[in-house]
Specification:
The chain has helices spanning 9-16, 20-28, 45-67; strands at residues 6-8, 35-37, 40-44. It has 68 residues and is an alpha+beta fold.
């Protein structure tokens, strides 16, 4: 069975443990990429992975800055 490439907003919310409003805030800020297919907004799997990497990088940077 092929891996999923696109997730509807409710599933992306669950995967990222975020509320709908926070998820859309991240999309508006350009931190999370989304696509529209017809009337549906979908989140690519790669965008979810990239967003998680971004959060990890930001956390590591904050931790490093606090230690300095």
């Amino acid at each position: 069975m092929p891996a999923r490439h696109l997730y509807p907003i409710p599933e992306a919310m669950q995967l990222l443990s975020m509320s709908r409003s926070v998820l859309y805030e991240q999309i508006r800020a350009g931190r999370l990429i989304s696509v529209k297919v017809g009337r549906s907004r979908l989140i690519p799997a790669e965008a979810i992975n990239s967003f998680v990497r971004l959060l990890i990088t930001e956390t590591e940077r904050e931790t490093h800055d606090q230690a300095a």
